[in-house]
Write a structure and sequence with these properties.
Elements lengths: L19 H6 L5 H9 L23 H18 L13 H14 L15 H11 L5
């Protein structure tokens, strides 16, 4: 990208390296800048940026909250399989599931937006998304 085409964040002025579609979705800002400018203030008294606002993907959320979400996702997958692999799982063996998990992670190469949603901020969230996606990913 040439200097003339460089995407700069309207909030902090630093270069934005996300794809053009996401740059426009987030009002020409980094996701973090967008979150603090438009979303964080509605969930936190006095708009304290260091306090978890409770919204999905809050950059200020403690890692433990996201780990709890991952544990819940894994428990959900285990419950799905309690009586055998569900019919809607395309990847019904451990090797196929693990291959699909690796493919999903590779194909999403750092752009962890799911269906136009906000990008995942926590690695725990990315892993939870990947584990769910691997059930049907081809």
């Amino acid at each position: 990208m040439s200097e003339d085409d460089q995407q700069l964040c309207r909030r902090c002025g630093l270069p934005v390296r996300m794809p053009r579609d996401n740059y426009d979705i987030f009002e020409q800002m980094h996701f973090v800048c967008f979150h603090y400018a438009f979303k964080h203030r509605f969930g936190v008294p006095d708009n304290d940026p260091d306090q978890d606002c409770g919204l999905l993907n809050c950059p200020s959320a403690p890692a433990a909250r996201h780990l709890d979400q991952l544990v819940a996702a894994v428990n959900g997958l285990a419950a799905d399989c309690a009586d055998g692999v569900p019919a809607f799982w395309a990847n019904d063996t451990l090797p196929r599931y693990l291959e699909a998990l690796a493919a999903w992670l590779n194909d999403h190469g750092g752009d962890h937006t799911i269906g136009g949603a906000e990008p995942r901020w926590s690695g725990w969230e990315v892993v939870a998304d990947a584990m769910r996606a691997a059930t049907t990913y081809e």
